[in-house]
Specification:
With 215 residues, the chain is of the alpha+beta class. 33% of the residues lie in helices and 26% in strands. The N and C termini lie far apart (51 Å).
Length: 215
């Protein structure tokens, strides 16, 4: 019976993984993203409900946050953008990408953000700007959108550093990215340039050297 029990557990796990793979589609995850973009700063209770207990959060301006800090984080944003969408624009820029991984759904969603008018309260903030939301979500039958987020990370493309095509290991212009990070809640997590690391990886694995990339 013990051996049979393990077989049954294996079948159940396989069924769950297959179910996640089938549900981890652009169409099925769109309600989650729509709710996330629309509720931030407008309905913090609704925004907070999109996260699973124990979720982790990282943002280039806000820094690292734990689950217990997320409601306050949303309220801080609401204070910066009183009136919600009438004072700040935060929206999905185009279609997102998804990938099922070990029973979870990994989402990469491009976004657009700006004050109205641009650079109103934060001068020289490179507005409007774009970026990426990297989200790990898990199916949640109790959620109105079908998922809850266990991991959220945002990075603006403003902080990207282009590769030097002639010498991808050259990171002499990375100071521009560091200057921008100094005005955020970053505590040194991104102080090391990614170009030399990626160049070594692609050279080692025979993938060539990319001429341009967004980290």
């Amino acid at each position: 019976m013990c051996g049979r029990g393990k077989e049954i557990e294996g079948v159940v796990l396989l069924v769950l993984l297959v179910g996640v793979a089938r549900s981890c589609t652009v169409e099925d995850t769109q309600p989650l993203l729509t709710a996330m973009f629309e509720s931030l700063g407008n309905d913090c209770k609704a925004w907070f409900s999109l996260f699973g207990e124990g979720a982790l959060y990282y943002h280039q301006h806000d820094g690292f946050k734990t689950y217990d800090e997320l409601m306050q984080n949303c309220e801080n944003y609401a204070a910066f953008c009183p009136g919600g969408n009438s004072t700040c624009v935060f929206q999905q820029q185009t279609v997102h990408q998804v990938q099922a991984v070990n029973g979870e759904c990994h989402i990469l969603a491009p976004y657009l953000w700006s004050e109205i008018p641009a650079d109103h309260l934060v001068p020289n903030n490179l507005e409007p700007h774009t970026g990426w939301e990297y989200i790990i979500a898990q199916p949640d039958p109790t959620s109105k959108v079908g998922y809850n987020m266990t991991w959220f990370a945002e990075i603006e493309t403003s902080y990207a550093a282009k590769y030097h095509v002639g010498d991808p290991t050259d990171s002499s212009v990375y100071w521009w990215t560091l200057d921008l990070l100094e005005g955020t809640a970053s505590q040194g997590e991104c102080n090391s340039p990614v170009a030399p690391v990626l160049t070594d990886y692609f050279a080692t694995n025979g993938g060539g050297e990319p001429a341009d990339a967004v980290p």
